[in-house]
Amino acid sequence: MGKNRSRSVVFYLDQHFGAPRIQPHRKNMKMVGLDVLPHARENMMRLKEKGYDVFLASRSKVLKKSEQDLKHYLPHVDGLVLSQKSNEDLVKNCVQKIGKVDNDCLFVAADLVLRDLAAQNGFTALAHPALIRPYMEESELSFLRISGKNGEIPGSDALIPYFLERFADGSWRSYGVGTLQRYLTRVDENFEVQVLPLDISRKDPVLVKFDANKGVKKERLEGLKPLCIDGDKMLVAMGPSPDEAARSLVLGHGATQRLFPNPDLTSPPPQKRQALNAYQSAMRYWPHDRFKLKEIAHEIDLSRFVLRRAPATEYTIHQLVDRFSGQTDLDDDGPVISRHVLHPDNSRAVYAVKEELRSMGYCVHSHFFSYMGNTYSNITADLPGKGYFIIHPDILEKIRDLFIRYPLPDPVGPWLEQLRHIIGDEILKKMQFGKASGISEASAIELRHIIEERFCLRPWYPWWQKLCPLPGPGAGLVVVGCHVDSTASREPVYNPAVDSAPGADDDASGIAATLEIARYFSDFLRGKLTHTVRFCFFNAEEVGIVGSQAYAGWLKSWNAPVRAVICIDMIGYNSDAERIYEIHAGYTDPAVRDASVPIAETIANWSAAQGSLSPAQIYRGTNSGSGSDRTIYDGAINRSDHGSFHQQGYPAVVLSEDFFINLASEPAQDANPNYHKQLDTGIDNSYAADITCAIARAVQELAQ
């Protein structure tokens, strides 16, 4: 028997619920749609069918301006709660909207600060919409550590995972939310369950990695009560107070990962040909009498990759690193002091990245996420791939243009009549519209969503932005990324809200490299690559790899066809003549590692062809320890943004300078003594430029 629950639930519009479609409009931003994630939509509909009142809460200025349109995009929501003043005011408005609030009223938000405020006001706070179903149907939820030596990993119907590790020997370990009673009958010598004392409403779990070489020193953890210790990792509970948040920031480079519910962790990632297969499947239902397909020849002439100018030079890298690390003016307001997420200059750095990309002719997109009471954004820009076919006339472009002109799904008549002229009435009659028996019974929003899906207008690509060209049929994604933020957490006294954190190496070097590759591709490769190259600038990496986790989870939820991910994190420090650098492809799951190694080898091959760097040190290990044998160990596992993609099953690597321990037969490691310090103010620009060139040429090959 399920519990007798409240008839009200509040969803906060964040990375766990969905994202508004934003389009520039007369020097402002306008909402032209809303993509609700599958888990959120499923649970919202479940509640509505049971007679619950559903409210959507937001602090977005854009949503305030589009409040009247929201009912068209979310017809099942009973009300919108807004506040631009403060989180406290938003929760207060939610209480007033509902009336009497008790523990059976739900408040669903990824943001810990909001959940804590909601709990203080009588709500039961949940971190993810997927937690609603087990909360409604089961006994009390617990935060569990579950491990197995072999056998099937629990699916999201049994455990909502926050973190999942698969190991080379077939064993696995997961932290997540479930009910202890469900697992008591399964406990044996191959299966262990442990209840951890975590209040999921008012605490977030943070995974801390110890590393005798460069990671967290145990003495810095005094006062933090561990939930559990697994080898070189410790799980701790972090609350919403500024003191606890600040404490979590000083634990070391990439050594902390803030964990969030992610029900898609247990599902397999799309295969490499998924994008092409999806188009071929969709094309079966297209009006073949209204267009012609021409297959594009795909011949790779690797020699032409080296005929153009260098993708980056010492001068261009130097200019960008100095701008983003505060050595020269970033903009009209002067130099940046810090790019830390708690520092006001973080937003200046994000805006400067956008302006750089726009100046290159890119359509820039923001992916928003909530963290510790604030909203931040990852920045993306796409060089669309041409795909495998040319469609003439281009009915996809016609449908896209129609939906941009008619963003509101209701009234249906005006846009549906024009759609009939594009695809024909017979195609519409043959479509299946969910539970509706035909087009006349389907709701406006259901009709629009199904047509978008059928004609491959999917949320992982910002097709609703007029200036974003559509990728060709079957084009996958090759991601090139870095992180925007910085920290000086290794200083004896450091206040991230006001103190300097130049981060020239970590990671202005990555920002410069990613921008220079984007510039090169814009100048020379538009319309020439099969697959879309997506340039990503992740935020909040230094506070627990937060931004890339939100983004990788977003892509996985929409089944985005990610073929390869290359992250660039600290490629600037070089104090000797060896010019050694690292490519980390290792991961605890051998299948993910095996898919990642070819990316590393492609980069290494182009680096060798250049001849200006030492042979790449490729890490292929499945052990996250700090040993020197790169076939066994990879100390960068889950310690940078590539780990967010590994956890979703995507092939990914991260490049860095000579940071980790070398073999006894090799030169000593050349780690930056100023990393996470205020003296991180300069890099070896020539060295960083050479690594950037190798990455750029590898991306060309991977996107062919």
TrEMBL record:
Biological process terms in GO annotation: proteolysis
UniProt superkingdom: Bacteria
Chain ranges of the Peptidase M28 domain: 476-681
Pfam family for this entry, one: Peptidase_M28
GO MF, one example: metalloexopeptidase activity
PANTHER family linked to this entry: METALLOPEPTIDASE M28 FAMILY MEMBER (PTHR12147), PEPTIDASE M28 DOMAIN-CONTAINING PROTEIN (PTHR12147:SF26)
Name recorded for this polypeptide: Peptidase M28 domain-containing protein
Species of origin: Desulfosarcina alkanivorans
Source lineage: Bacteria, Pseudomonadati, Thermodesulfobacteriota, Desulfobacteria, Desulfobacterales
